[in-house]
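User: I've been going back and forth on whether these two constructs are worth ordering. Before I decide, could you fold them both?

Assistant: Sure. I'll take them in the order you sent them. The first construct and its structure tokens:
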Amino acid sequence: MALISGRYASLKYSTELAGAAAAPGATVNYIGSWDLTISLDTMDATYFGSVWKDQDVGMQSWTASVAGYIDVTTESSHHNKLIDDSIEGRLVQDIRLHEGPTATGAYWIPNAHSTYGGADYSTDYGAYITNYRVTASKDGIHTVAFDLVGNGGLIYLTGGSSYVVIAE
């Protein structure tokens, strides 16, 4: 079993629509955790006389939450861009949730890129920032947390010199 240390996880973000073959956005500094939830709606297809429920899978969706410390020390800070995307209601298309080292690890990304080789994609896919929270405390470091709601498909890729779509 190959366990992955969370210490190598990261969040990469770019305001540009890049592809897997292009360089990803820069790592957002001071992020301490992220989580991703993929949901599958179920439909009850049970009929009169059934003893067991008959379920079928319906629509799929995804959400993510990110938390860490805030750095708004420069105008070009990724935190500042994320705040702007949140307030403006922009669709964020190049946001990557890396599970391990960015050079070789697997990651999740909205399927908004045409360079993933055969995977169905849409330039309308991405995520919206639905909540952006900054917390200040007299005896602590300012923290930031934000939530994403997916718009369209999400894919899981392996990194390295070539990219392989694991799931779409």
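The second construct, handled the same way:
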Amino acid sequence: MATFMIPGDILASVGTYGAGAPETGYYAATIGKIEAHPTRPTSRKMALTFDGFTTNEWMNSPYDKDGNVLPGLGEDQIKGQVKGIKTIFVAAGFTNEDMVNGVTDDWLPGRTIYVEWHSAKDLGARYGKVEGYLTEARFNEAKAANKVPGIAAASSASGSSTTAPSAPSNGAALPQTVAPSPSLPPPPGAQSLVR
């Protein structure tokens, strides 16, 4: 007699312990589901899948779904969170022209985004993490040069090579020429990002 039954869609939505997180490198990832944190109104969990591996990253928005600033945030917090959000949108291929009327997180699921991943082994930690985001052009440059993030070279036993998987290290670059994005829905409120 069975003591539990786990639905197949739930099983398909998770990996296994010890499932191979990728080595440190630059990866093209697909953005999956974005969920609001149950108790922190600024926080959103964003699923990223690359190299057969899925991880979650947090992003913070100082604005609610209607384009209103959340209470209790200072000007520096607002600007910092907007800068972090813009970095993600730029790495996902959006341009300043695309974002002229604002953005919503509905634009991100299904998009390709370029990430710098640091493995747990290289961090000396239990889990790996996305260290930064980069434009497609910077990703392609690093991939063509067979570069890896410096942390991989530093933790290498041989220390003799800095080559391996894909692209660059600082994801904060402004957009470079990117193919036009599909028709985008207008953001709620369509107001200035920082008041």
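Notes on the second construct follow. Strands lie at 25-36, 43-50, 53-60, 112-118, 129-134. Confidence is low (pLDDT under 50) at residues 157-183, 190-195.
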